[in-house]
Amino acid sequence: MAFEVPALTYAYEALEPYIDAQTMHLHHDKHHQAYVDNANAAIAKAPDLEDKSAEEILSNLAAVPEGVRGAIRNNLGGHYNHSIFWTIMGPNAGGAPSGAIADAITKTFGTLAQFQEKLNDAGVKQFGSGWTWLALGSTGLQVLSTPNQDSPISQGLTPIMGNDVWEHAYYLKYQNRRAEYLKAWWNVVNWAEVNKRYEAALKK
Ligand code: MN3
């Protein structure tokens, strides 16, 4: 089955003033669509992958035929990462988490502010395009960054939340001020969804 860009569950302008509507339109409708189109084109050349989920394919890239592996890694990775990204943001969001994720963040990183600083720092230091992530592995929660559209799932980690630090995610509004974008982004984080993802990851 072909992959599709999931519709946003909120309006394009709902994340204003932190993320502007024009960026959301371009990012969701154009950039994400391009990843989906290119991923589907690559999968059409590797019929064995057709019935597999994005998670299954990306968690075992070595099993992907070499001729399409790069295209799948970049474009299915792009689809998978962005599909998470849209759901962990929302209007009337931000603030502090509650539930299991709140306890786990405190236990792992000390305070919420310390965790936020760590995730932002990984985002600032990611050279070029990429993502900064909170992911769950066998030793617990960890912050990491990935280049391009690489996903933590390809390293055996479950992505819990992540911020897109490609210039297309922030350049219209923040220009070269990536650090400012990273700081502002916390105002649109949908913690209820992040907690849901964390609880689901614990059960895997
Ligand atoms: Mn993006």
Features:
mainly alpha, Helix Hairpins, minor pseudopilin epsh fold, 2 domains, globular, binds manganese (III) ion
Biggest β-sheet, characterized?
3 strands, antiparallel
Radius of gyration: 16 Å
Secondary structure class reads: mainly alpha
CATH topology of the largest domain: minor pseudopilin epsh fold
Instruction: Specify the number of helices.
Output: 8
Q: Which band does the percent of strand residues land in?
A: 5-15%
Q: What is the top-level CATH class of the largest domain?
A: Alpha Beta
Number of domains: 2
CATH superfamily of the largest domain: Iron/manganese superoxide dismutase, C-terminal domain
Q: What is the subunit arrangement here?
A: single chain
In angstroms, what separates the terminal alpha carbons? 24 Å
Helix content: 40-55%
Helix/strand layout:
Blueprint: H1 21-44, H2 54-58, H3 66-87, H4 100-109, H5 112-125, E1 130-137, E2 140-147, E3 158-164, H6 171-174, H7 178-185, H8 191-202
Antiparallel strand pairs: 1-2, 1-3
Describe the structure.
This protein is mainly alpha-helical and 204 residues long. It has 2 domains: 20-87, Orthogonal Bundle (Helix Hairpins), CATH 1.10.287; 100-202, 3-Layer(bab) Sandwich (minor pseudopilin epsh fold), CATH 3.55.40.20. It is built from 8 helices and 3 strands, in the order H-H-H-H-H-E-E-E-H-H-H. It has a 3-stranded antiparallel sheet, sandwiched between helices. The longest helix is centred in the N-terminal third of the chain and has 24 residues, at 21-44. It is globular and about 45 Å long. Bound molecules: manganese (III) ion.
